[in-house]
Amino acid sequence: xxxxxDHYAVLGVARDASPEEIKKAYRRLARxxxxxxxxxxxxxxxxxxxxxxxxVLSDAKQRQQYDLGPQxxxxxxxxxxxxxxxxDTFFGGGGGGNRGPKSRRARGEDALLRVDLDLDEVIFGxxxxxxxxxxxxxxxCNGSCCQPGTSPVTCDIxxxxxxxxxxxxxxxxxxxxxxxxxxxxxxxxxxxxxCVTCQGQGRIRARRTVSVDIxxxxxxxxxxxxxxxxxxxxxGGPNGDLYLEMKVRHHDVFSRDGDDLLATLEVxxxxxxxxxQVTVHALDGDVDLELKPGVQSSEVITIKxxxxxxxxxxxxxxxxxGIQVITPTKLDHKERELVKTFANGRKQGPPALAQFQQGxxxxxxxxxxxxx
Length: 372
Hints:
- By secondary structure, the protein is of the alpha+beta class.
- Among the domains are: 113 residues, Urease metallochaperone UreE, N-terminal domain (HSP40/DNAj peptide-binding domain, Sandwich), CATH 2.60.260; 111 residues, HSP40/DNAj peptide-binding domain (Sandwich), CATH 2.60.260.20.
- Helix content is 25%, strand content 27%.
- The chain has ten helices and 15 strands.
- α2 runs antiparallel to α3.
């Protein structure tokens, strides 16, 4: 370890120190040497050494490799664990030295937001201004992560490469392995004076408004993608996407079958017998219906082009109204006599079982499906 400082000595701990002892030593030295507390140049250099030493010794694998040292052989982590770097060296990776430092900028996360809609909003589509709690670009540093007037400085440990190289023994002999620099964490630069607004992240949490035109014909479970409307990335990286998941609320009168709207019209027995004109209130205005004399329960009246606008087109589905004839359950004496007179005049026999009709029950059960 002649080519690098003794990390244990830098932290002032024994070589058999526990992880907790290492952490306590680092915290004590960090409070003493941090640039905000001790602005001296010597303290700044020591702070970098202390931070690098802690990064190595706080990671179990790095500590074991460090303890084995560059002269260790066999199948330990230092001698055999660097196989990924060895393969990089012999197959074009160059031991990691040519990879360069990684960028602080990264793409932001995607976001998912549920949008509740009423059924009438689905017919023609609607506009929504949605409040989204997300990550936005820090206005103070504009994504640079630095306090205004300052900029990142080159890491003195890796000299801006973002990685540390060391020689280790392996089955293939002495080779150079590369690992991310623990001081700058592979970035090659250090934020010496982080932005106080975003704490050096280049972004902050905030609530913003997203305007969206929701097309007609959406249904529960459908997701709309809004590219670039998700969270801004670290250090002002590009935004992720925003996904809007639709949830259509239950309606007490109308239901949906694809692009068709379904409803049930309860018809008094007298209107079913004599027929009449009826006006019903649909989701997009009144609809006039003609009940023909003798209309039966389970019949379906179809009103063309009064359903939901199709998602990928301008045409609309149909409004299908199933008829349910209501038989009165309470009659006064006069009404009962009138019904008896009507029944006697019809000269009908008593109810009797008829030949089974295969399609009858299916029509009652699925009266809306297949109607035209």
